[in-house]
Design goal:
It is built from 12 helices and 14 strands. It is of the alpha/beta class. Helix 1 packs antiparallel against helix 8. The longest helix has 39 residues. It starts with a strand and ends in a 7-residue tail after the last helix. The chain binds pyridoxal-5'-phosphate. Pyridoxal-5'-phosphate binds next to helix 3.
Length: 387
């Protein structure tokens, strides 16, 4: 295969070396973690060590980590009226979401549609806190879900500020930290989150593993999504995905240990990429540029560019990028994130997302810029490569 350059880390990251090693070591452990014999206990030990590592990444207690089959499942488990706390046993009456959430949150989980309300963002893609305050006044027991960082723009959301408003109104705060983990601090206490979602494959674990993390043990889910055996404290039945959970734990530990170093490297490379992009095509627009963003993400548009065509053109040059959010099935749909930011549909339909990771190199940036020099220049001259 010719040399490839991967710039789609927000869709998924490769397996980290530490996770691969842990996985290899775990595969021969064949017991069921619920079994009491030595084989079972060996598997249980692996799961519990991984739970400690994932808990550390979120600054939580291991007992408050619930392993799930994905970030999507964790979000769906979180978004239910049936969340009880020590001082509130009645169902949550409203769910407020930012309009830029991932599809797995936007569906509203198990809330009835009429109880779900979306909150707007400003032109830079940050949650409108005034709209949140107004919404909170209309509910008595709200659940609020705000992502820590957006998967398309990378814009970091004002989560601690939102959480303070939510708690003052007697509400509960859920935070989808799937894209933020390993890239910005995800301490559940510092964020003010009551529940937090992580996904293994965005931090170098395997696809198909996630976690829902509680800030305190008095937060109780009255209606688990999957019932059966008593695994995960009765909150998520089903024999644990031992190997996947082990790889998640190893990825979480490695991500945390190298976060400062990786963030500094990604930021320097991302800044070079953006400077080069603008030098080649001064009319390029970087969405959310004025806001605090993840160090690895650039979502950009150029008048006249069509994202699907641009993605294919980049691919032919050996560069993997994505058009807006790539979590769905390759379908091209207008980005709900850019629509919420008030970006014109014409510009939004050309949005291309470039996302870097810990293995991105200067050579990757050069390859991206060389590809863009061809595509972007042709577009700017109206050659209609992507028209
Ligand atoms: N939340 C966000 C912000 C995401 O970007 C994604 C996946 O892209 C998810 C949740 C879903 O995670 P998973 O792929 O583990 O279901």
């Amino acid at each position: 295969m010719p040399e490839r350059t991967y710039f789609d880390w927000n869709a998924t990251a490769p397996l980290r070396e530490a996770a691969r090693q842990a996985l290899q070591d775990a595969l021969p452990v064949s017991g069921n973690p619920s079994s009491v014999h030595a084989e079972g206990r060996a598997a249980r030990r692996l799961v519990e060590e991984a739970r400690e590592r994932v808990a550390l990444l979120a600054g939580a207690r291991p007992a408050d980590v619930i392993f799930t089959s994905s970030g999507t499942e964790a979000n769906t488990l979180a978004l239910t009226p049936g969340i009880e706390t020590a001082d509130e046993k009645r169902p949550r009456d409203r769910l407020f979401l930012s309009a830029i959430e991932h599809a797995s949150v936007l569906t509203g989980g198990r809330f009835p549609r009429e109880a779900v309300e979306e909150l707007g963002v400003d032109a830079d893609g940050r949650l409108d806190l005034a709209a949140l305050s107004q919404a909170l006044a209309r509910a008595s027991r709200p659940l609020v879900s705000v992502m820590l960082a957006n998967n398309e723009t990378g814009v970091v959301q004002p989560v601690p500020e939102a959480a303070a408003l939510v708690h003052a109104a007697g509400g509960l705060m859920h935070v989808d930290a799937v894209q933020a983990a390993g890239r910005v601090a995800c301490d559940i206490g510092a964020l003010g989150a009551d529940i937090l979602t992580l996904s293994a494959h965005k931090i170098g674990g395997l696809k198909g593993v996630g976690a829902l993390i509680r800030a305190r043990d008095d937060i109780h889910f009255a209606d688990p999504l999957i019932r059966g055996g008593g695994q995960e404290r009765g909150l998520r039945a089903g024999t644990e995905n031992v190997a996947g959970i082990v790889a998640f734990g190893a990825a979480a530990e490695a991500a945390q240990a190298s976060q400062a170093e990786e963030v500094a490297a990604m930021l320097a490379l991302r800044n070079r990429l953006e400077a080069g992009l603008k030098a080649i095509t001064p009319r390029a627009v970087i969405f959310g540029e004025k806001a605090e963003r993840l160090p690895n993400t650039t979502l950009f548009g150029l008048p006249g560019m069509k994202a699907e065509t641009a993605v294919i053109s980049f691919d032919l040059e050996g560069v993997a990028v994505s058009s807006g959010s790539a979590c769905s099935s390759g379908k091209v749909q207008p980005s709900h994130v850019l629509a919420a930011m008030g970006v014109s549909p014409g510009l939004a339909q050309g949005a291309v997302r470039v996302s870097l990771g810990w293995a991105t190199t200067e050579r990757d940036i050069e390859r991206f810029l060389n590809a863009w020099r061809k595509l972007g220049t042709a577009l700017s001259k109206g050659h209609g490569i992507a028209a």
